[in-house]
Each structure stands twice: as C-alpha cells, then as structure tokens.
C-alpha cells in the first residue's frame, strides 16, 4: 500500500527490437503492400519549404562491416531558421508551415542505402543559451537492435560552428566526434547538396550514440 | 520563482535497468548490431524535448481496425480481439495525441512481408498493421485478430510467443519507443530469447496484456488491456531550463 513520503513513479515500458518486419507497421509499401491512404516518408520538403535543399544518405553497417539492410531510420530537425515545429520551442524565430521536420526512411533491402530529402536546418539555441551547430537527430531501429539508437548528424561545411558545438565538445575523444559529421559532396545532385552519413554500429569507427 | 512550475521542459533520465542491453548474446542478431562504446549522456536540449506532431487527418478511418482495413471482401481468419489501454508517462499522466503504430503476424503466425517465407499462409483479408492517435486522456483502442506464434532462426527451434509490435511517438523525441505486447498466460513468453533480453521480471510483466472481460463485445470479441509508459516530463522548480538564460546553470 502507498504511504506518504514515498516517491512512486511508473517505470518506462521496456524496449524490444523492431524485428525484421518493422516495415509492415511503419512503412508497409516497403513490406510489399498498399494499405494506408497516406504514408509517412523520407521526403520532408514540400514545394514552398524554405531553405537549402539537401539530401542525406548513407548506410548502417554492423560489426563485420556488412550493411544492415533491414534498418529503419527516423530524422528530426529544426527548420531553416533553426526552430522546431513543436509548442515547446519558444525561440523567437519563424515557423515554416510547410515543414514538420520529421521523416522516416528504410534501407534498400539489397544495398542497405537510405536517404532523406530535406533542407539544411538552422542553428538552434542549446542549454544555457549556447548555440548548437546545425544538426539533425537520428533514431535507428532494426532486427538485433534491442533499444533504438540515438545519434546526431552535423554538417562538414560548418567547421566553425561544429568546433563550438556544446554537444560535440562533450565527446572526450576528438577522433570520435568525426563519426557525427555528414560529408558534403562536391557536386549537387538534382539541385540538392548531398551529405553522406554512414553509421557504424560497432567496430573501430563506431558512431557515437547518445543516451538522451 | 518559488511557486513557478516550469512545464514543457526536460524529461526524466532513462532508467536503463528497465531495458535490454544492446549486447544480448542469447538473441544472436544483437551480437554484431550492438555498440560497444558507452553511450554519451546528454542533458535535454530543444532537440530532445521536441518531437513531430501528428494530426488526425493524416490517418484514415479504418487505420485502427485491422479486421477491416485490408479486407478484400471477406474477413480475416482468427480470434477477434479488441486491444486498448493508455499511453502514460512515468508520473501516471495520460499522453495525449501520441502516435501508436502496431504490426503483427496473422492468426497462423505469418507476416505480410516480402521477406517472410514461413509455411503458414498469408491471409488474403489481413494486412497486419494499424495506427491511431491517443485521445486527450492518452487512451487508444484498436481491433484485430490475435496473432499466432511462429518459429524463427536463432536456436534451431526457437518460437516467438504471440505478440503485437508497438511503435509509440510521444511529445518529446526522447520518448520514442518500440516495444512488443505479449498475451497473458502464454507459456512461450518465459522461453523467448527476445523477451529474455529484458533484465527485470517486473519489466517483462509490464509487456504482457491482460484479458479484460469488461471491454469485449458479447458474442463478438474478447478484449485485452495494455498500458504503455513513456518517459516522464519533469516538473522543475529550480534551474535546468532548456532554453533561455538560466538563473542557475551547472553543466
């Protein structure tokens, strides 16, 4: 029985792997069938979205270097002005009504490649008013991943901002910070800048994952 | 600021003792897919306390009715069930407007997925996925067919207990969760290598739906009740403000 002066909280439900058939629930067309009228996708931009068009693409590889071909990645980001489309963001910056800032991508079952079509986010105010360098948040689930992995991708053409970023600077090993930098390719593709971001689940070049 | 309670702020830190470790060798696929470095702990910033907002008009009317949402003129085979519950946070408050997505095998234990080649047949009238938004109290409900157990390659004869996969998106990015719901009194639960990745018996029990005789439809469907708990949004009276110039900041 509950008594006074006893801190009682519910416990977060335990995570379980998304399993090999995660696509049925989260991306049924990838599983091989049509069921919903509207589907979530890896395209975050509409015709009127403000900002520099970019594509983020890469592979997730396992500890043997093999591509994880059944991975699902979600992306969350601020708009071009550096504001999240969410009521808890009280920064004095404009919202872009055409941009939610969220997408979901599945890797190709043969190549393991996934991609997002989006815009480059602006800088967001971090804790204590310190600016965070432009970044996107990523969440990775798959068969064999027992609890979703959180990471961030920063941009290779933001060297100064990255050097001052409070989150990158929390990572003691400078060499590991490099695992969070998406590399901008020199040529545009279909009018969009391409950032390559490979995620390594395990091994010497293991990507930095966060406990957020 | 004595009586000012800041909301829309940070979330409780994740209690990792409730969750499976990344590396759980009895679930063999986790061996090469588990990071070996320690996770870097981050205090919440705006990037973590915000999350996508979903709207009712993005979902279809039958999206939460797995008995009808893939009907090709008939009904799926199997036990008709209703599943309902609340999405709560760690403080016991309902989480409104959470996106709940579910997917499952059919009554024979077969998934409608191009990579599933199990011998049990695909059901022509069953897709096996649904989605809904919680109401203002955090409640959700859907109708489906009870999934069957099925064998999988781990040991040579491992079987998954009947289960429904859940994906939940709450009000903050840190609340994002994928889990599975099991059914009360299934003897396969205790033997399942994926269930056994969870280190705590209490945490396992929390993933088992209970038969709810008062929520079914007489002569039609049984019901199961399954509550899900997401990270709690903290009430902070002092410091730790995620944005703006903090009065007292320690990093």
Task: Walk me through what this model shows.
The complex is a heterodimer of chains A (212) and B (251). With 212 residues, chain A is mainly β. Helix content of chain A is 9%, strand content 26%. Chain A has helices at 22-26, 28-31, 159-164, 174-177, and strands at residues 53-61, 72-76, 102-106, 113-119, 124-125, 131-132, 135-141, 149-155, 181-184, 193-196, 199-200, 210-211. In chain A, strands 1, 2, 3, 4, 7, 8, 9, 10 and 11 form a 9-stranded mixed β-sheet that branches. Chain A has a two-stranded antiparallel sheet with strand order 5-6. The longest helix of chain A is centred in the C-terminal third of the chain and has 6 residues, at 159-164. In chain A, 49% of the residues are buried. The mean pLDDT of chain A is 96. Chain B has 251 residues and is mainly beta. Chain B has helices spanning 46-49, 201-205; strands at 40-41, 80-89, 99-104, 129-133, 139-145, 150-152, 158-160, 163-169, 177-183, 208-211, 222-225, 228-230. In chain B, strands 2, 3, 4, 5, 8, 9, 10, 11 and 12 form a 9-stranded mixed β-sheet that branches. In chain B, strands 6-7 form a two-stranded antiparallel ribbon. In chain B, strand 8 (163-169) and strand 9 (177-183) form a beta hairpin. Chain B is globular. At the A-B interface, helix 1, strand 5, strand 7 and strand 12 of A face strand 1, helix 1, strand 3, strand 9 and helix 2 of B. Strand 12 (210-211) of chain A pairs parallel with strand 1 (40-41) of chain B.
């Amino acid at each position: 029985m509950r008594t006074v002066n006893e801190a009682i909280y519910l416990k977060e439900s335990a995570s379980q792997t998304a399993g090999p058939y995660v696509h049925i629930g989260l991306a049924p067309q990838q599983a091989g069938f049509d069921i919903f009228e509207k589907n979530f996708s890896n395209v975050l931009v509409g015709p009127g979205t403000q900002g520099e068009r970019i594509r983020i693409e890469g592979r997730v590889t396992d500890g043997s270097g093999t591509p994880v071909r059944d991975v699902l990645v979600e992306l969350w980001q601020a708009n071009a002005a550096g504001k999240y489309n969410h009521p808890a963001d009280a920064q004095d910056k404009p919202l872009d009504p055409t941009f939610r800032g969220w997408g979901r991508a599945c890797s190709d079952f043969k190549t393991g490649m996934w991609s997002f079509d989006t815009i480059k986010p602006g800088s967001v105010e971090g804790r204590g008013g310190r600016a965070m360098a432009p970044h996107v948040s990523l969440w990775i689930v798959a068969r064999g991943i027992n609890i979703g992995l959180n990471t961030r991708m920063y941009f290779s053409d933001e060297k100064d901002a990255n050097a001052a970023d409070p989150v990158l600077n929390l990572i003691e090993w400078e060499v590991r910070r490099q695992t969070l930098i998406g590399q901008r390719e020199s040529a545009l593709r279909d009018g969009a800048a391409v950032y390559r971001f490979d995620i390594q689940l395990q091994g010497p070049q293991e990507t930095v994952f966060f406990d957020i | 600021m004595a009586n000012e309670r800041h909301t829309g702020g940070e979330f409780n830190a994740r209690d990792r003792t409730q969750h499976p470790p990344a590396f759980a060798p009895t679930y063999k696929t986790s061996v090469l897919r588990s990071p070996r470095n320690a996770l870097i702990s981050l205090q919440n910033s705006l990037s973590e306390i915000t999350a996508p907002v979903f709207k009712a008009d993005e979902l279809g009317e039958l999206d939460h009715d797995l008995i009808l949402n893939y009907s090709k003129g008939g009904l799926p085979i199997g036990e008709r069930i209703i599943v309902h519950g609340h999405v709560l946070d760690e403080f016991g408050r309902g989480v409104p407007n959470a996106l709940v997505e579910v997917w499952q095998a059919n009554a024979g234990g077969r998934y409608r997925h191009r990579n599933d080649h199990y011998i049990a047949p695909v059901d022509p009238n069953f897709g096996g996925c649904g989605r809904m938004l919680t109401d203002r109290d955090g409640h959700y409900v859907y109708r489906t067919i009870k999934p069957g157990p099925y064998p999988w390659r781990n040991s040579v004869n491992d079987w998954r207990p009947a289960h429904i996969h859940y994906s939940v998106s709450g009000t903050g990015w840190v609340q994002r969760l994928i889990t599975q719901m099991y059914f009360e009194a299934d003897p396969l639960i205790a033997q399942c290598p994926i269930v056994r990745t969870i280190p705590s018996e209490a945490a396992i029990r929390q993933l088992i739906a209970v038969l709810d005789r008062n929520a079914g439809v007489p002569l039609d469907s049984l019901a199961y009740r399954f509550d899900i708990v997401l990270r709690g949004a903290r009430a902070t009276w002092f410091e730790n403000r995620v944005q703006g110039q903090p009065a007292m900041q320690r990093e």
